[in-house]
Design a protein that fits this description.
This protein is mainly alpha-helical. The protein contains five helices and no strands.
């Protein structure tokens, strides 16, 4: 029972995604841990220098934000009516279930 709880640990799954293998060899695991540690060290160095590490943002999220800002700008400049903006917002809405 204890082994099953360890295997369900989020750290195990995060390293599986990082490594790309469900059952890596010992050397692949060691190299992956070294790369992970180097990345963390670089992030700590950036924070110490006063530049926080950049968050990864998906391109689709950036495009979505640009569309929404453009709709707001078009409405403020009276380029689009309220009905047109609401219709466009209806196409931009993302439903997460």
């Amino acid at each position: 029972m204890v082994i099953l709880n360890v295997l369900r640990c989020p750290a195990v799954f995060s390293h599986t995604r990082l490594i790309g293998h469900a059952h890596p060899s010992l050397w692949v695991l060691v190299e992956s841990l070294k790369m992970d540690e180097a990345g963390v060290a670089m992030d700590l160095l950036k924070v110490a220098r006063g530049e926080p590490p950049a968050k990864r943002v998906k391109r689709s999220m950036e495009q979505h934000q640009c569309r929404l800002q453009q709709l707001c700008a078009d409405r403020c400049d009276d380029k689009k009516s309220l009905q047109e903006v609401l219709r466009a917002l209806g196409h931009c809405v993302r439903v997460h279930i």
